[in-house]
Amino acid sequence: MDRQRAGGESAGKGESEATSVAPPEGDPAFWSIWSARVQVLLGQVLDGTPAAIAVLDTELRYRYVNDTLARMNGVPAADHIGRTVAEVVPGVEAGEDVLRAVIADGIPRETISSGHTQADSPLERRYWHGAYHRLRQDGRTLGLVGIVLEISAARQEQRELERARERLALLDEAATRVGTTLDMDTTCQELAEFLVAKLADAATVKVLPEPGAGRAPRDGSLRLRRVALAAVPELETVMRPLGRPGEYVDHQPSSSVVRCLAAGRPVIDNLMDEQDMGRAGAHTGNVGAYLAAGIHSALIVPLTARGHHVGTVTMVRAGDSPLFDETDAVIAQDLAGRAAISLDNARRYTTEHNSVVQLQRALLAEPGSPHPDIDVAYRYRPAGRGVLVGGDWFETVALDDGRTLLALGDVMGHGLEAAVAMSRYQAMLRVVAAREPGADRILLELDHLLHTTAADRPATCVIAIADPRRGICTYASAGHLPPVVFRPDGRATLLPVPPGPPLGTGHSQYVSLTAPCEPGHTLLLYTDGLIERRHEDIDASLRRLTRVRGCPAPEDLLDQVLDLVAPDDPEDDIALVAARYN
After folding, report:
1. Alpha-carbon distance 395 to 146, whole Å?
2. Best CA proximity match to 281, nearest among 319, 332, 243, 244
3. Best CA proximity match to 374, nearest among 218, 125, 580
4. Per-residue pLDDT of the chain (582 residues; tens, 9 = 90+)
5. Rounded to whole angstroms, how far apart are CA atoms 346 and 415?
6. Using CA atoms, how far apart are residues 420 and 74, in angstroms rounded to an integer?
7. Would you give the distance in Å from CA 252 to the centre of its chain?
8. Using CA atoms, how far apart are residues 382 and 389, in angstroms rounded to an integer?
């Protein structure tokens, strides 16, 4: 019985009174008289009512039922008489304790009962609302009368609404916990851990390899890459040795994974024996270990996004966990559908990111050669995982009269467009540097060219023109961070180069700074990805850089700066140029 509500104020109030003279309690003669004299009359009045009505004696044996109750129970009315409720409808939680309480104290009660009768029903579970009143006459308790209405449809609708709310809540939670980055492996692990927390004892996420990623199996098997694995503590020690992320797994044509992808629908494998598991699983040879761990149920769900398969999710249950059912499959399919979009986004991003990185490395691989009296080293480190590549670039140009131009810039924005724009800046710099003598004039001409060609991506840039023969270096900046000079003793100094507007804005003015360039000194140019941190003032970031005690050799200096200053997972690209005056 799910709930009960007492009604009435005292024993006997609101009770139905029998019209015949009552014999002593429990006397069968009374119910014989009842049947003969009253049942026909009750049938004429109550058999047509939509409410199911029954009269029971003090032992909860049926003494009268109307046609509605007989149909509800799936038992002829005559077969009820003399039998208890438990004997007629053993599949119903009738709450006999409540009925006996009504007989004992006379207080009417209402109950909700549930279960299955012998009547056919498509419902998973049926529900009834009953109201019960005690029958008494001349101070003697005769039994009770019950009025029952079926409320299965309302309860079923309520349960469906509750399930729908639970599914929506689960999907909302998954949206905040799965796909938090643009890294595919991270997204897969988040999905596996979420499924273990909500639906499964263990979960494995596998993805289809990228085209060209190794040879396909020759026996017709399907190869997937295991990306993520999660399990409850009880299965952790069993599952981990049987499969590690990063491995390729071949699935035979009859396996559940292949059938799942072929149909595009979840596959449920319950109560598998060793033969079933061997036929349905991958070529792993771990069937015995799975069975020894108590795994008895599996659910395989496709990961499908934008009309194509990304991979699969395999969930298992073991021990006392229930078997997977269709409800689990629907929930898992919803979760997998959302996760697949995140995985597809991550895969697309990874592909673009790798293409941009390769393009940028190719464009930066061959800067010009400096004059032999200057040693120059370069570094480029792309942004951390989940961040789009930016437009950092550097260049070296050998000028007339033994001078060497060193330039480093940062195109605003990220992605392929920024990398392409970066190559335009490099090309223009080489042309302008050949005809303009001063650093400030080079920036001014670059700004004019970019503005007149409607460049839509401004850039910061710093230029240093080293003239070792005269012992000087001239600097100019278009909104870039100040250069750093490391003296032979390793101490660093920021050069106060006046920063002008970024290139591409038009009608700008730039001011140059000339400083000594002495043998043994090493110049460092860098982009903001090296030093900037969220929630940190730029002056504090620059102080961190100047506290480095630098090495004189350019290659060694760049290694040292990256180790000591660069973030572990930079949010922006890092480009470095180091030049030592001989």
Report:
1. 94
2. 243
3. 580
4. 333 434 443 334 444 443 333 344 455 556 655 555 556 656 555 666 788 999 999 999 998 899 899 999 999 988 998 999 889 988 888 788 999 999 999 999 999 888 888 888 877 788 888 999 998 877 888 899 999 988 876 666 666 667 767 777 787 888 888 888 878 888 999 999 999 999 999 999 999 887 655 556 666 788 899 999 999 988 887 777 667 788 888 888 888 899 999 999 999 988 766 666 655 555 455 666 777 778 888 899 999 988 889 999 999 998 889 999 888 898 899 888 888 888 888 888 777 767 766 766 666 656 677 888 899 999 988 776 545 556 788 889 998 888 999 999 888 876 667 777 777 788 888 888 888 889 999 999 988 888 777 666 888 999 999 998 889 999 999 999 999 999 999 999 999 999 999 988 877 789 999 999 888 899 999 999 898 887 788 888 899 999 999 887 899 999 999 999 988 777 788 899 999 987
5. 14
6. 78
7. 29
8. 6
User: Of how many residues is the chain composed?
Assistant: 582
pTM higher than 0.85, yes or no?
Answer: no
* Residue 133 host element (H or E): strand 126-137
- Strands of the sheet containing 574-581, edge to edge, are 374-381, 574-581, 522-526, 484-486, 492-494
Q: DSSP letter string over 348-363?
A: HHHHHHHHHHHHHHHH
**Contact of 360 with 343, CB cutoff 8 Å:** no
Q: How many angstroms separate the CA atoms of 497 and 482, rounded?
A: 6
Across 151-279, where does the E strand assignment appear?
202-207, 222-231, 248-251, 267-270
Q: Are strands 484-486 and 472-478 parallel, antiparallel or unpaired?
A: unpaired
Q: How far apart are the first and last CA of the chain?
A: 94
Helices (H), ranges, 365-485 = 416-433, 439-452
Measured CA to CA, the distance from residue 425 to residue 217 in angstroms comes to 47
Question: Is the four-CA dihedral 114, 119, 124, 126 of positive or negative sign?
Answer: negative
DSSP for 326-382, please give it: HHHHHHHHHHHHHHHHHHHHHHHHHHHHHHHHHHHHHHHS-PPPPPTTEEEEEEEEP
Tokens of 312: 């699969």
